[in-house]
Each structure stands twice: as structure tokens, then as C-alpha cells.
Design goal:
The protein is mainly alpha-helical. The chain is built from four helices and no strands. Helices cover 80% and strands 0% of the residues.
Length: 109
């Protein structure tokens, strides 16, 4: 498989919808760094399982990883509302409100 084919495959894999968000390089870097920390926590939990760590110790690490991903999600929602939603409302695209309400319903399950 050529490098171009691999790149196109990745674009298809992650380009799940027609909309996209242009983020500053700093915002993108901050989001990736936070996700890398969560990924590290998950790898740490996996290592704990492999090393037969005590259940409560693993559960505490799971709780920390869950809190980290929840914090990431809250920040991303805030950024989405302040950026994408506000922009679309200013441009008269009120359907973004229904989209946001639908998203919040899904996240609050």
C-alpha cells in the first residue's frame, strides 16, 4: 500500500461527517496532549492488570482516567459552544441549536 493510499484511508476513517472544525495549532496541540495523557493512563491500567495489581488500585486509576476524559469532553464542549455554535448562530444557522441540544441529550445518557 502506498503512502498516499494509507493517508486516504486515515482521512476516510476519521472524516465521519461533512462538517469540520478549524482549530489553531495551539488548541490542537493542547487537545492532543491531553488525550496522550489519558492514553498513558489507560496503558498504565493495562500494565496494572498484566502485573496483577490489587483491584482497588486499578479502580482508582480507572476513576482518574474517567475524570480526565470527562474534563477533556467538558473543555471541548465549551470550545464548541463558544466557537462553532456562536459562529453559526451569528451567521443565521439556527439549526446548530437543535444539533447542540441533540448532542447534549446523547452525552447525558
Amino acid at each position: 500500500m502506498s503512502e498516499n493510499e494509507s493517508k486516504n484511508e486515515n482521512e476516510i476513517k476519521y472524516n465521519c461527517c461533512a462538517k469540520s472544525t478549524n482549530r489553531s495549532e495551539q488548541e490542537r496541540k493542547n487537545l492532543i496532549n491531553r488525550l496522550n495523557r489519558v492514553e498513558g493512563q489507560i496503558r498504565g491500567i493495562k500494565g496494572m492488570i498484566e502485573n496483577n495489581a490489587y483491584c482497588t488500585d486499578i479502580l482508582m486509576q480507572c476513576s482518574a482516567a474517567s475524570a480526565a476524559i470527562n474534563s477533556f469532553s467538558k473543555d471541548l464542549i465549551g470550545s464548541h459552544i463558544r466557537g462553532c455554535v456562536a459562529r453559526d448562530i451569528r451567521e443565521g444557522k439556527d439549526d446548530v441549536i437543535d444539533e447542540l441540544v441533540s448532542l447534549l441529550y446523547k452525552l447525558m445518557k
